[in-house]
Fold this protein.
Amino acid sequence: MRAHSNKQAFVTISVDDGYPSDLRAAELLNKYGLAATFYVPAHNPEQPVLTPEQVRQLSKRFEIGGHTMNHLPLNTLSDEQASQEIVEGKQWMEDLLGERVLAFCYPRGKFGQRVAGLVRKAGFVGARTCCLNLHGYTDDPFMWGVSTQAHNHTKGIQLRHALLERNFQGMFNFLTTYKSATDWAIHFEHALDHVQIRGGVAHLYLHSWEIDERNDWQKLDSVFRSISERKSLRRVTNGELFAMCTARNYSMDSERDLAVNETAAAQSHKVQSDSSIQSPSI
């Protein structure tokens, strides 16, 4: 399928939780030359995580994003506790890698304006949610949604989650752009088709432990191959996407401010010109 739009078209991939099988996902990504962001917590009470040395090795090829210290749902914590999880997780990762960590992902998909504010305050450039069926740009780089999760969801689950998250755009997109697809590979192909023609961001996220459980590695290989064959799509990390979003919004704000200032100046000049006109004597 050829692109017929001048709008920028991006594809990005994110891998959550730092499970040891992330290394297998990395091998497939390398196979097809794709960019991705791996979100790794320091600890996870539910399952094993990559060792520090494995994380360092992974960072040589891929972006590593912040995912807190202990993978706790931040919306259940106080501001102090949540901030500690976010900040200490960021510091741990930066000390480990010796570089700044730009991107953040909300553990277990739990977030809100309060938590997003804490992530912003911690110094991240942007953050990813788990809101599905989204492929456009966002005004808030700390509220990035995704197109597809590499996991089959029934139509009922898709619509219920959209309602709970107040993701009404995603609900509409699921019924139209994504054609109510319940197979995740077909679902993401719809995202790729749409973005390739109309522009936007096709974003796939996955848990390697779910790929293990469903033995979906061959399906993942096929999807990665499909992405690699779409040469018009620019491959970016989440951090690059967030940074571009921030720059884009800043540029739009600057242009809007300039337009407002020019309008105000023109109106001021008109008022001054009007006041200089003398009324004729009677």
